[in-house]
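Bumping with the actual sequence this time:
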Amino acid sequence: MDNQTDNLYQADFLIWAERQVELLRSRQFDQLDLHHLSEEIADMGSQLRHELRHRLELLILHLLKFAYQPQRVSNSWRATIREQRRRIELLLDDAPSLAPRLDQILDTCYRQACLRAVQETGLPAGTFPATNPFSREQLLDPAYLPPLPTDP
């Protein structure tokens, strides 16, 4: 890689990326910035995994708030639940290889969602189950909402 290419990558990522696309399309592989190109592709995968974790955490957080603060359920919470499910579905459609990772990261996402639920609700940590009470099917089911407690 020459200094000019490295400088372009540092100075203007968009122009650098457009140049890499031109080189790929014209099959000028010997001129590609392979070092930065491989880093960017790896980062893209990492960003997709991060986004899936973030979306799952927000979904679980709002399902927990829905279940454990029924008196505060709002249209905003319902909208957030719908939006996170929609975004998760889009992510899984765009990158089906993320689907098996969903099961692998649910426990971590649940723990993080519980920490946030404690902060946001003011409820004691012991309020929330120690393990994730939501199945994968429930999390992805557009119609599922936790049952609200009934008055005695």
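The tokens above came from a reply further down the thread. The mean pLDDT is 91.
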